[in-house]
Amino acid sequence: MDKISIINVCRGSGTDGCRFALFVDDDFAGLIEETINASGWPEFLHGGFGEQINRHKMVSVSAAACPNGCSRPHIADIGLIRACVPVIDHDGCIGCEECVRACPDEAMKIVDGKVVITREKCLVCGYCTNVCPTEVISCSRSGWRFLVGGRLGRHPRLASELPGVYTSEEVLDLISRCMKIWMENYVDGKRFGWVMERVGHDKLLLE
Fold first, then answer.
1. Which CATH architecture has domain 5-84+141-204?
2. Could you tell me the CA-to-CA distances from 168 to 83, 174, 183 in Å, in that order?
3. Using an 8 Å Cβ cutoff, are 80 and 73 in contact?
4. Measuring CA to CA, which residue among 77, 69, 75 is closest to residue 21?
């Protein structure tokens, strides 16, 4: 079967990878491809356009291991960004400010001798968990940020982000939902973001 998807997973994860990268399972790209294939997308495309599917009709999925987004999740049909929601054990915090200085987004500050997180600024990258010398910062939830509808072309737009952080299993469920919505509302020549702008992103939210 010809290729019907473009899946790009960040290569920064791993022992010799990017210092900002969170862990990504080696088989995650394969699981994404299996989910897309199981959705009926290959049959849908081949049934409508024959065996030779050009690149513009393929679904694009990009997964980044940190918010730096080197794999360009913000311009893919479906974008994923690895996430770690930090939480601080204030009883153990010594106020050394290592995390404050290291935070790429200036989301941490000292209040009354203890570190607090400004959630509006935090991109849940988890970097602070690596630099804390007393290991009092941990992940309260690990998973993925989920973005939909990015594109380049004549009318480029950045993807819209769903609220929350999702497990890998929930991400695969969301991808399956995306493919179903796209097939049900498909218009030749239009990207998935165009479809979502019309049907509404609430259609994707997990119950």
1. 2-Layer Sandwich (3.30)
2. 11, 10, 23
3. yes
4. 69
Q: Residue 156: its pLDDT value, please? A: 93
Phi, psi of 49 (to 5 degrees): -130, 5
Cα(19)–Cα(127) distance, rounded to whole angstroms?
9
- Rounded Cα–Cα distance for residues 22 and 17 (Å): 10
Q: How far apart are CA 32 and CA 151, in angstroms?
A: 19
Tokens (6 digits) for 15: 């022992």
CATH class of this structure's domain 85-140: alpha beta
Spans of the chain below 70 pLDDT: 1-2, 13-16, 206-207
**Looking at the whole model, is its pTM more than 0.90?**
yes
Strand partners, 85: 141
191 vs 56: CA distance, rounded Å? 9
CA atoms within 13 A on the CB side of 134: 14
Residue 111, both tokens: 């209040």
DSSP type of residue 117: E
Contact assessment for residue 10 and residue 79, using Cβ atoms and an 8 Å cutoff = no
pLDDT of residue 14: 59
- Measured CA to CA, the distance from residue 21 to residue 85 in angstroms comes to 14
What is the Cα–Cα distance from 187 to 182, expressed in whole angstroms? 9
How far apart CA 97 and CA 113 sit, in angstroms, is: 9
